[in-house]
Amino acid sequence: DAKTTQPNSMESNEEEPVHLPCNHSTISGTDYIHWYRQLPSQGPEYVIHGLTSNVNNRMASLAIAEDRKSSTLILHRATLRDAAVYYCILRSYSGAGSYQLTFGKGTKLSVIP
Amino acid sequence: NAGVTQTPKFQVLKTGQSMTLQCAQDMNHNSMYWYRQDPGMGLRLIYYSASEGTTDKGEVPNGYNVSRLNKREFSLRLESAAPSQTSVYFCASSGRGVSTDTQYFGPGTRLTVL
To answer: How many C-beta atoms lie closer than 10 Å to residue B35's C-beta?
Structure first.
């Protein structure tokens, strides 16, 4: 399975933008790039995903490099509620309509008031 | 909609005891998953079920069995619990879709095996 590399931790000041990087140099042409986050003592929650083009939703933006070997999750204005572990995941196909997610250790984002 | 629900929330077992973790989803999803998360680590896939009536092993299936009871419910059984199975267990479900498939997670079951 293709793997991702993320920094262990990052800090951001409240109300400032945050750029969370992810490297995935062995990504295949059919792998989607997914981001999930896990708030303390909760299950992971979906943030955003993309294939080739940049994507925006109400939670965040995803910028994907032209060669697809890296991506960046952008939180436009960090709030205290955004403090979480962020996982960058390449979604691989398992067959029969099911898709496995392989979680690494993620990036722990701390937001400073 | 409740989403994905898991019972129990907490459980303490003695080595050798058995138990079943229950998971249910009300989103009419085809696929369901069981993960475990050890302290400071990411989630690891134990078993998954692509559709009702099918189950497959994930990364760490040893010591576990699963049952896809119907489309809504997917249970995880520990036949003889070991301290190495102390972990937080998450159930997830996903709809069928090539490009939009995302997984929805339950709140987790915190299991301690003494």
So the answer is: 29
Torsion of CA A54, A4, A102, B107, to 10 degrees: -70
Chain B residues bordering chain A (beta-carbon distance below 8 Å):
4, 30-31, 35, 40-45, 48-51, 54, 56, 58-59, 90, 92, 94, 96, 99, 101-108
Interchain proximity B50–A98, CB inside 8 Å: yes
Tell me, what DSSP letter sits at residue A6? Answer: -
Q: How far apart are CA B80 and CA B70, in angstroms?
A: 25
Write the pLDDT tens digit of every residue in A62-74: 999 999 999 999 9
CB contact under 8 A, A98 and B48: yes
Ordered strands of the A18-23 beta sheet: A18-23, A70-75, A61-64, A55-56
Tokens of A37: 């986050």
- Using a CB-CB cut-off of 8 Å, the residues of chain B touching A99 are 31, 94, 101, 103
- How far is the CA of A19 from the CAs of A16, A62, A71, in angstroms? 10, 10, 10
CA dihedral (B76, B55, B29, A40) in degrees, to 10, reads 40
CB contact under 8 A, B58 and A98: no
The tokens describing A70, both together, are 């890296």
CA distance A36 to A46: 4
pLDDT in tens, A14-52: 999 999 999 999 898 888 899 999 999 999 999 999 999
Among residues B68, B63, B67, B71, the alpha carbon closest in space to that of B96 is found at: B71
